[in-house]
Design a protein that fits this description.
The protein has 368 residues and is α+β, with helices and mostly antiparallel strands. The chain is built from 14 helices and 12 strands. Helix 3 runs antiparallel to helix 5, helix 3 packs parallel to helix 10 and helix 7 packs antiparallel against helix 10.
């Protein structure tokens, strides 16, 4: 189920984040996701995809017919829940750039897929290692993010914005409560002529504990506390958190307002819930298409999965009532179809479609 490209290197899931740097500054998955904008971006994508209604259809000629959940989806739903499974795949794509899973084969195609956190791909096409076991390509489900020409694996987002994450983590650490809840450093000066190291250490510990607890620090006559002001160039450093959010949002292709960033100059403001829902749907569309395409390749021929994005786009009650009324009037919906959207029971005679009378005879309309 993977993309058949030859790669000149072997990459595994943990190696996407190490960057060859064993120092504490190396951007690991755990460190990257501890940065608020990164976690917010991942949460947005995972939540959006995993909570969409899922429908399955079969093509009957040119007609689309809704079908029961296929065996693959049933087994996944019974094991972890189909929404959770889609969320796991989305997490792997957003963090690692690749969702890789082990396929359980059946007589008519896969009957199960379990996503793996420990995988690697060899230099040869069709060579995979999942949880320490070598597997042929036909037993591996692979959904990549962005795949460069000549490569087999998708790019790792965290690897490519590592520098942004490092800067953001530094700014986030700067504001940590252990440093005084975001207060700038202070100088605790002893006014006596001599300074006992033990006394100085005790005073320093007391001051740090008070700042961390958000309480004032009470001193005697021998001490003066001078809070240091932030130089203008250091104040800009604190703004790095906001800059990081905008850059991370740009990499994932989502609105920076979703992850704590600021909108681009001249961007359109949300006028209502519907406009925000439309914006979210547009941001998530590339990820939704990737997931649908990958799952559809594993389903029986002619059957496909559809993530119902439209269900998340709801107009206000007044607008929705007017639209549905017009659709009933021109025959696009029956009364019962409209009632189903509102989770209302069908009514007798509600399956009738109102087809307006033509304004001209068929022969005349063909000439026009």
């Amino acid at each position: 189920m993977s993309v058949f490209f030859r790669t000149p290197e072997v990459r595994s899931a943990p190696e996407w984040f190490a960057l060859g740097d064993p120092s504490p500054s190396a951007v690991s998955e755990a460190r990257a996701t501890s940065l608020t904008p990164v976690f917010a971006a991942i949460r947005f994508l995972v939540d959006y995809v995993s909570t969409l209604p899922v429908d399955f259809y079969r093509l009957d000629g040119k007609k689309r017919v809704e079908v029961p959940m296929p065996t693959l989806a049933q087994n996944i739903d019974d094991e972890v829940g189909l929404g959770t499974w889609l969320g796991q795949a989305m997490y792997a794509i957003a963090v690692k750039g690749n969702a890789v899973g082990r396929i359980t084969p059946g007589p008519d195609g896969p009957i199960g897929v379990r996503w793996s956190a420990d995988w690697s791909a060899g230099t040869n096409v069709g060579e995979w290692f999942l949880d320490g076991n070598a597997l042929p390509d036909k037993l591996v489900a692979h959904i990549p993010w962005i795949v460069p020409p000549g490569m087999r694996l998708g790019l790792s987002p965290i690897e490519h914005y590592a520098a942004i994450v490092r800067a953001g983590l530094s700014a986030q650490d700067y504001a940590d409560v252990k440093r005084g809840g975001g207060l700038p450093p202070a100088v605790l000066k002893n006014t006596a002529k001599t300074l006992d190291p033990a006394v100085a250490a005790t005073a320093s510990d007391r001051a740090a504990k008070s700042f961390a607890a958000g309480k004032p620090f009470v001193v005697g006559a021998d001490w003066e506390l001078n809070a240091m002001t932030i130089p203008p160039n250091h104040a800009q450093f604190i703004e790095t958190l906001n800059l990081s959010a905008n850059q991370i949002a740009a990499i994932y292709g989502i609105d920076p307002r979703e992850i704590g960033g600021t909108p681009a100059q001249g961007s359109v403001a949300y006028t209502n819930d519907e406009s925000r829902a439309l914006n979210r749907a547009q941001d998530a569309a590339p990820y939704v298409v990737r997931l649908e395409t990958a799952v559809n390749r594993m389903l029986p021929a002619g059957v496909y999965m559809k993530l119902n994005v439209d269900a998340r786009i709801r107009a206000d009650i007044k607008t929705r009532t007017e639209i549905v009324g017009a659709q009933i009037a021109d025959g696009r919906l029956s009364v019962n179809e409209a009632r189903a959207f509102e989770d209302l029971a069908p009514v007798t005679g509600g399956d009738f479609h109102n087809v307006p009378a033509p304004q001209a005879a068929p022969a005349q309309r063909m000439k026009e």
